[in-house]
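job 3f2a | input accepted
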Amino acid sequence: MPAPFRLQKIGHVVLRSRDLERSVDFYKRVLGFEVSDVYGEDMMPGGMVFLRFNPDHHGIALVGGMAALAEKREMHHMAFEVDTLDEVFAARKRLREHKVPIVFQGRRRAGVQIAVEFLDPDGHHLEIYWGLDRIPPGAKIRPREEWREAHSLEEALANPVPGQKAELRDRSLLDK
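job 3f2a | predicted structure (176 res):
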C-alpha cells in the first residue's frame, strides 16, 4: 500500500565534526556553501553551524564534538547533483587544487551517473555527480548490460551509456 504522502526531496543532512571551524571552512571555501546560522555551545554541545548551497535555509548542518574520523559505519556517503558534466570536471579540478582526497572518479554501475567522490576533513565520503538516470512512473530501469563502469572521468566521457549525452564543453578540464 502506498504511503499517504509524497516525499519531495532529501531536506538536509546533519554531520558530526572533529574541528567545527576547519570543517566549516572546507564546506565554504572548497564547495561554496554559505553559513545561515550558528548555535554556540550554550545551544548545542560542540556548537552547530547551518550551511546552505541553494535557497533552503540549510542543506547541511555540522555539529562539533566528534571524537574520531568518520568510518562509514552509519552513513556510506552523501551526493550532490550538478547541472552539467563540465561542473563535475571543474569540481575535480577544484578538489585537487585544495588537496582534497579524491577516492573515486568516473562511473559506477546502477544509475550510471558520472561522479567524483572525495573526503571532507572529518572523513565523510561525499560525491558530486551528473547524469543520474531518471525513471518516469511506469518506465523500466536501465538493464545491467547498459551499465558502463569507468575509473576516470575521461573514461566515462569516452564510453557513454545509451541515451546519456556526455559532452564536455571545456576541453581544458581533461587530464592530459
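job 3f2a | The chain has two domains: 13-64, 78-170.
job 3f2a | closed
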